[in-house]
Specification:
The chain has about 110 residues and is mainly alpha-helical. The protein starts with 14 loop residues before the first helix and ends with a strand. Helix 2 (about 25-45) runs parallel beside helix 5. The chain contains 5 helices and 2 strands. It has a single domain (about 15-110), classed as 434 Repressor (Amino-terminal Domain) (Orthogonal Bundle). It is about 45% helix and about 10% strand.
Length: about 110
């Protein structure tokens, strides 16, 4: 380990915002929902084919979600998949001007 000093930078809580993406809130919301879908698949030990049989959602969509290839998904499509997996989704949206740092899109499972 070196004794070289380093700067600690606190993130915003949204990686996409920190990386400068203009649609950071949308990307963050999709990532959170994809993570919840993956949690359900892992908890229930479901393959993508088993998830397809259970939900009627194509196994290729579950493969894309597992690879975090979310460009083809809308927020409501991800919500639909969570619903098909037996999850309730609660969405909270707070809107503030761009000047304030505390923009938030919250997604919670009760």
């Amino acid at each position: 380990m070196t004794d070289t000093p380093f700067d600690v930078v606190r993130g915003s809580g949204n990686l996409y915002e920190d990386l400068g993406y203009p649609d950071s809130d949308l990307r963050q919301a999709k990532a959170v929902m994809a993570a919840e879908i993956i949690k359900v698949l892992d908890k229930d030990a479901l393959s993508t084919r088993q998830a397809e049989a259970r939900t009627g959602v194509s196994h290729s969509e579950f493969s894309r979600i597992r690879r975090t290839n979310l460009t083809r998904f809308t927020i409501d499509r991800l919500m639909h998949i969570l619903h098909r997996l037996g999850q309730d989704v609660e969405v909270s949206v707070t809107v503030r001007s761009h000047g304030t740092r505390d923009q938030s899109v919250g997604i919670a499972h009760p």
